[in-house]
Specification:
This protein is of the alpha+beta class. The chain contains 4 helices and 8 strands. The protein has helices spanning 101-121, 129-140, 147-158, 165-181; strands at 2-10, 13-25, 28-35, 41-48, 52-56, 64-71, 76-85, 88-97. The relative contact order is 0.09.
Length: 187
């Protein structure tokens, strides 16, 4: 049995998650999906060509009828889901990348930093980088120098841009330095 989980990020926040399993069932290999912790839905393996696995929902009780996972290199894959809602067909594609502990840690550190910065500046959660930087410059003056670069770098990491370990450590140092200088500790 293979066990996994995924999460979908938007703006550094988790907007969806899924627990999944691939197991041998009495009728062959099955993919068992539990999006958002809902009851499990089984999809039977229809085809596997060494790069793409296609699973189908033979039970029909779920809106998703077909899921295809395609390997895109050593550390990425694309999932395509297909189904129908109220008689209208749909399809959605999701790009995934392997995330190690360092990736997850820096994303969490960055998300907390942005949350605390928004609170300190009293800006809405949907405020963009230019608005955050403008208000930070007004409030913190020269201490806000480099904030735009820090935010752009952090957003790139959250969006899936791979960075080296030294770059991750540098980003973490910049975040903590900005926290201290602008007194964001404990906000």
């Amino acid at each position: 049995m293979l066990i996994g989980m995924s999460r979908t990020l938007q703006g550094g926040r988790t907007v969806a998650f899924e627990f999944m399993r691939i197991a041998a069932g009495p009728d062959g290999v099955v993919y068992i999906a539990q999006p958002r912790g809902k009851p499990p839905v089984e999809f039977a393996l229809e085809t596997w060509d060494g790069t793409t696995a296609v699973f189908v929902n033979r039970g029909g009780e779920d809106r998703v009828k077909r899921i295809a996972y395609r390997r895109d290199g050593a550390a990425a894959m694309t999932a395509r889901i297909e189904g129908a809602v109220a008689g209208a067909n749909f399809s959605e594609d999701y790009a995934y990348r392997r995330a190690g502990a360092a990736d997850i840690a820096i994303e969490a550190l960055y998300a907390r930093f942005v949350r605390d910065l928004r609170r300190a500046l009293d800006v809405p959660t949907d405020a963009g980088i230019p608005q955050i930087v403008r208000i930070a410059e007004q409030r913190f003056g020269p201490a806000a120098t480099g904030l735009q670069s820090l935010l752009l770098h952090g957003e790139a990491v959250v969006a899936g841009h791979r960075v080296s370990e030294p770059d991750m450590l540098n980003l973490a140092r910049q975040i903590e330095q900005f926290r201290r200088v602008c007194q964001l500790v404990g906000v």
